[in-house]
User: Which sequence fits this backbone?
């Protein structure tokens, strides 16, 4: 009976590539492991899988009686709903420690780097397992999560891993590939509004308050001009549907290196408290903010504390 490797609900490229890369590593080490996913894939992730010749990991939402590794998060709100009925074997992640606990010792790899795949590259090196050319797809996840090295979460380790993985994958210029990926991300015209809001969306438990934060990273915010009102209306619906205290949507311009934050909240002063900037008509520009993990979640947690 195989184990599984699975990331968070509404999976991004890091979550999916981590599940694939960890499964190959564990299977090579004699521990049969299958990559899985909790939701549908984004256009960027599909682009990566197609480029490197991977099928989509299996869609598996129940893990009752199964054994699994969690990748790219450690939050109960983001993992399988029946996690307590499964056997958790380990957590590999680059976010803050969440609220997933266990009654037995776990394999834990948590590092303050820009991407979970950077950590998994370290695991390959630790176990002296050769990385196949197609597993070089890890490089794309690192480029995505670090916003092609622009994110404040990016570390020297992330850059070195991309360089090494690019050589393995035969990619001469990974930065060009990163821009190609972000162009895929930026092709939002014609996509249903709810699909956009949930494309990269995570729920967080902040001192007993459910806070949902989505992010759309594009190369030019002007593409949202004709749909911003619809996005604002939909995050309001999402807040009501999920009984959330707050829903935020970051519209991130990777070229201008900042984000426009759309927000619907029970606290009208939340952005002032968290970021020192008040909203105007439910919107505020946050200069230099590219990372939800490092620049948005921590000050919000402080505000709720």
Assistant:
């Amino acid at each position: 009976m195989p184990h599984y490797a699975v990331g968070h609900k509404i999976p991004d490229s890091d979550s999916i590539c981590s599940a694939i890369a960890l499964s190959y590593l564990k299977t090579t080490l004699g521990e049969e492991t299958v990559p899985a996913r909790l939701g549908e894939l984004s256009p960027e992730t599909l682009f990566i899988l197609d480029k490197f010749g991977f099928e989509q990991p299996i869609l598996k939402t129940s893990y009752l009686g199964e054994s699994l590794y969690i990748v790219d998060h450690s939050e109960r709100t983001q993992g399988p709903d029946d996690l307590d009925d499964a056997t958790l074997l380990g957590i590999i992640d680059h976010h803050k420690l969440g609220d997933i606990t266990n009654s037995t010792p776990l394999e834990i790899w948590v590092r303050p780097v820009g991407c979970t795949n950077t950590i998994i590259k370290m695991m390959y090196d630790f176990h002296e397992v050769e990385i196949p050319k197609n597993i070089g797809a890890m490089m794309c996840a690192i480029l995505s999560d670090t916003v092609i090295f622009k994110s404040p979460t990016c570390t020297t380790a992330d850059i070195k891993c991309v360089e090494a993985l690019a050589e393995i994958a035969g990619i001469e210029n990974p930065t060009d590939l990163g821009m190609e990926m972000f162009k895929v991300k930026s092709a939002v015209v014609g996509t249903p509004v709810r699909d956009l809001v949930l494309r990269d969306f995570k729920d967080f438990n902040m001192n007993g308050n459910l806070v949902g934060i989505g992010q759309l990273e594009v190369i030019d915010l002007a593409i949202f001009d004709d749909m911003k009102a619809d996005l604002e209306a939909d995050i309001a619906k999402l807040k009501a549907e999920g009984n959330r205290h707050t829903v935020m949507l970051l519209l991130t311009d990777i070229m201008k290196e900042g984000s426009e934050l759309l927000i619907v909240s029970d606290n009208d002063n939340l952005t002032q408290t968290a970021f020192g900037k008040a909203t105007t008509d439910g919107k505020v520009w946050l200069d230099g903010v590219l990372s939800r993990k490092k620049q948005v979640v921590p000050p919000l947690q402080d505000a709720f504390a």
In short: The chain has two domains: 3-183, 193-304. The chain is about 35% helix and 20% strand. Residues 48 and 289 are 25 Å apart (CA to CA). The chain has a mean pLDDT of 96.
